[in-house]
What does this fold into?
Amino acid sequence: MDMKEMQQSEQLRYADWLHWSTLAGFLCLIGTFIAYIFGILPARIPLSELPQVWNKPAEEFLKVTGMPKGWGWIEMLGNGDLASFIGIAILSGCSIFCIMAVMPIYAKRKDWVYIAICALEIGILVLAASGLISGKH
Amino acid sequence: MKRLLFFTLLFIAHPAFAAASASPDTWWIWPLALFVVCFFLGIVAVPAGVGGGVLFVPIVGSFFPFHLDFVRGAGLLVALASSLAAGPSLLKGGLANLRLAMPLAFGASISAIGGAMVGLALPSNVVQIALGLTILGIVALMAAAKKSEFPHVPAADSLSSALRIQGVFRDAVSGDDVNWHVHRTPLGMAMFLVIGFLGGLFGVGAGWANVPVLNLLMGAPLKVAAGTSSLILTTASSSATWYYLDNGAILPIIAVPSVVGMMIGARIGAHLLSVLNASVIRRLVITMLFVSGVGALLKGLGVWT
It folds into this structure.
């Protein structure tokens, strides 16, 4: 297998996973936002009250509005403003699945260094996603 | 188009606009204005050769009433969404290289979280001042930076050889397959730690710094540098975005119109590449960045509110 073919196999798999996960994220983002903005889903913070709070620092905003921290939004997906986080979470998390998808290719080639790099990168992204480093859990 | 963007920004910066849109019934004016501004920023970002995030944060941070925490959170999402959307075609065309991106993205992801932590912990006026100074630094970099289509790399360094960082891509202009390798990898990795930190701190993405490091320092061909920069952003921005999301610094009413406006604008910008005068657009973007950098600095110093 020449360099171009080797390069292509991992890149194509990564590209496919990236394409579909990004598409899913965008569709969720736009669908839930439309439901939020047109009142199909109720808003936890009424839209008309947002101008009074969007100029506050994030920490103060959470205190004033009682909006959830970390993954707390997942229990309140019936609210349009929080349902919009589904698309954001998919977009923020899709790299994890793309990296996982190419690991078997590296394993087949016994490319242990890149398996280690992939595992470390996944570890960092999962740690960031977990909310553990934000100290809010 | 330059005039339209200029007058849009002038219009939303006018006190009468702020007064009209402060009414509870007219909350929708700001997200709509955000969508329109991001649409134009998306159009000019592509020919200017910069990511949307670096334009978004200083301009929206200076001219819109949102707190800088939310602007930076939305800026990261804009940078992330733009790079995710471009990723598949860049990877398939060999212009983004996974083998080159992975080790660099790992360092950038860690430091981006560090930048996000520092950014949300610091007082916003300090972040505004630092942002203003950084944007003015980017202006100087953009005005002075040289590019090299195919940099001369005498030999791959030992680390890139050990990691087998090399590749081949088909140059659309010549139709030839171009083999490439890189050098100065340890220094490049160190630079990506700094770049990731700044990206997380200011929510600006980091294509403005990624491309010169990959191209001029490490010797990757310009097209591979630009494509791989985008791929690195998909993971580096992702880790910082999670931190902002966890800490309540992403507001959908700000983030979603920005992402959608920027992406539609970028698609049109890509189609208009052959029509628009890239050097004129580049000068416009440098001017816009200079004005917004000064604006951020004045806001941070309390001179302009």
Remarks:
- Chain A has a mean pLDDT of 90.
- Residues 3-37 of chain A form the longest helix (35 residues).
- Chain A touches chain B through 63 residues (CB under 8 Å).
- Chain A is about 65% helix and 0% strand.
